[in-house]
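REVIEWER CHECKLIST
Item 1: Sequence provided? yes
Item 2: Single chain? yes
Item 3: Sequence as submitted:
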Amino acid sequence: MESFFEDMTLPSTSQSTPKSGHGGLQMAQETDHDSSFGNFSTGSMTEAQQQHTSSSIDAISRRVQELVEKINNDRTSDQKVLDSFNEKLVQKVTEGCQQMQEHMYLVYEKNSNEMQVKLQELAEVLGSCTKLCSELQEANLALASLRAGLAISITESP
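Item 4: Structure as written out by the authors:
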């Protein structure tokens, strides 16, 4: 008899709720429907059948609970994977930023050295320009003196 109940599915609860005014008809349908479980002359289940149905419900409840726990465990596992991914991503981004910063400082140092050389060359050129400007002013003064001396000698000569 146990193998008979293993293959059974539980009836839909939509037929087991009697509606007012149709109670007799509803009970006849339930009895007909319940006849698929075996021969019930009184319409009630034996104690063994009730225990089997109860154990089936308990088994389904345990299975549902196991599935819920598995889903929760999977969610916890998913969260751990996501947290790990997040940590690794933050670490990679931090490493990338640090490498970029180090490269930037190397470029700054190279540019600073190049600018130092250029500024030194510029200082030398400006020094030469200042020296040439002084020489030109001296030459200009000498020419002005010569001109003045020529102008005096021209005016003194008859």
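Item 5: Key structural point noted by reviewer: The helical segments are 2-6, 23-34, 47-156.
Item 6: Recommendation: ____
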